Amino acid sequence: MRLAPLMVVLIIGATLAIAVAGMPAFGSSDAPAYTHVVPRYLEKGVEETGVGNIVTAIVVYYRGYDTFGEVTVIFTAGIAVIALLGRE
Amino acid sequence: MPELFEDVIVRTIARLLTPFIQLFALYVLMHGHATPGGGFQAGVIMAASFILIAIALGLQEAKDRVKQKVRLPMESFGPLTFVVIGIICIACGGYYLQYTTVPLLPSLQAVGAILISAVEVGIGVTVMAMVTTIFFSMAGGKHA
Question: Residue B122's closest chain A neighbor by CA?
Fold first, then answer.
């Protein structure tokens, strides 16, 4: 009876191990993550956003929706704490 | 409430250090467009200064410095800033949060920098109010 879960784990593990072998090398500049939009951000970031810090430019300008969601999550967390523990 | 530190060194150092921590938080906030930093980090540093006060000088002292009446409206400041600035961008003919379309100044890059800083300030205020509120709520205990 314990054999079936073991087989599932082994098969999934083997699949993941094979998939890892196909990933780009660590730090490789040819990785898809570095060739898709990053060059454009680096080349045109200051010109398009006006801020010199590329991290801020990406977080607040290019990924503005995402940051908006993060702030909303924090806001919701605070509201939940006030609702549950609001006894100050 | 946990027992206070009666140690005069701890209390003095905490009282002396707090303004500098808060000044550093403001620097991280306002310089976030040029150097590493930004709203989230600045909000947490600012909240850490109030938590230091609460630990060293007592919870009531910290609550007096950042009162609940002020803190609760500050929590909603960040999302509201985002929404208002985003809608202003739409009204000026751009996409949501496309800051450089707002014709505030002749230089569109300056407009982008100003509005990004404004959004960062909103994020920082929200994070600061949220972290202090969670700490005060959980640190209260039965004796709050």
Answer: A71
